[in-house]
Structure formats: C-alpha cells, structure tokens
Amino acid sequence: MAKSNLVKINKMIEEKVKGGYKRVEDTVTGSYKKIEDRVVDTYEKIEDKFVDNYLTEDGETIEEAKVRLKNKKK
User: Fold this and answer.
1) Phi-psi region at 59: left, alpha or beta (left = phi > 0; alpha = psi -120 to 50)
2) Residues 62, 48: contact at Cβ < 8 Å?
3) pLDDT tens-digit profile of 8-33?
4) What tens digit of pLDDT does each residue of 51-66 get?
5) Do 20 and 31 touch, CB atoms closer than 8 A?
6) End-to-end CA distance of the chain
7) pTM for this one?
C-alpha cells in the first residue's frame, strides 16, 4: 500500500515537472521567434530603403530593381 502511494506521488511529481519544463520551453521559444521576426522585418525595411535610394532606375519599383540586380549577378 505504501509503495502504491509512493508510485502515485512520483507520477504526480513527474507530470508537474514535465508541465513546468514545457511552459518554460514554450516561453523561451516564443520569445526567440518574436525577436527573430522583428530583426528580419527591420532588415527587410533597411534593405528596401537602400535599394529605393541607391539602386533603382527611373520609374522602377523596389521589387523590379531587386529582380534586375539578382539577374545581373548571374
């Protein structure tokens, strides 16, 4: 009987630890993803502004300039 209770208590502890670990993991992963998305978005804005200011030709959009430059590179 005592062994049965001990097994139940150990199982409860195991589930609580797993749940706590999962919450920490989700929080860290979610925070990293938010930071990563923000960095990528900021980089893309800077890249678009640079292309617009220095690399576009008359009447050319940013996307057209990027395609032209990519094809020119090949």
Assistant:
1) left
2) yes
3) 999 999 999 999 999 999 999 999 99
4) 999 999 999 999 999 9
5) no
6) 76
7) 0.68
